[in-house]
Amino acid sequence: MGVYRFLLTPRWLLLHGVAMAAVAGCLLLGWWQADVYQDSHGRHELRDREPVAVAELASPGAELGDGADRQVVATGTYLAGQQQIVPGRVHDGTLGSFVVTPLETDDGMVVPVLRGWVDDPEDAGAAVPAGEVTVTGYLLPPETSDHATVRTGQQLDDGRMAYIAPDQLAQRAGVSEATALHGYLLLRDESPAPAAAPVALDVDTVAPIRDVSPWQNLSYWAQWWVFALAAVVFWVSIVRNGVRTRRRADTPSTTSRGDDVSAPAPSHAPS
Known about the structure:
Elements (H helix, E strand, L loop, with lengths): L9 H38 L4 E2 H4 L13 E8 L5 E8 L2 E12 L4 E9 L13 E9 L25 H8 L10 E8 L11 H4 L7 H37 L21
Parallel strand pairs: 1-2, 5-7
Antiparallel strand pairs: 2-4, 2-6, 3-4, 4-5, 6-7
């Protein structure tokens, strides 16, 4: 084992540590990409499920939890006086506003409905349909202040709010957080269809799951694990090369240290 003692010197211990850290890092990054793939793939599957009644997945004031990303159906009446415009939202490269209208269902739940986008809040499409309507769309969690496009401290006019969240609806529209859905519904379909409506928004634009294909995450996972294997091969190669170098240095010379038999014998002069 003497030939391997050099592997325990400080320089080699540092090399072992760097190699182990590289392998562990690559494995962790690979697992992370695999988790991202599973999460994004699972969320896409949720969005593809058939719509169910909103009351089956959500209750007033409670977190959406597993209900997020699911399609739901809700029937009720829009609260026209509590509609809110969310300014500073871009659609197809044009600056405009989101239109959010609370819908009160038959059981008393208030569902904020993102009905779409308008370039001008005075557009006829922003008008609130009267009477009972049935809406179908995606349940999405509340926005945060990071989504707001208005300046910090900016005073908004009545009927405007900075982002879609229960606290904003409570402050700006007087919607009680105790009766409101903790999130909002992105409208996909409405019956009866109104004569004029905001521009419909795609769920992958409003709440993108990932900016890359889920299969790309899977390929990244494989690449990181290949990098981990390459780090192991590189480390083994360096260790083997070090062992061979020490063995050659420790091997004694095979050159004979005896008399040179080719040298001529000394001559003796006659007495």
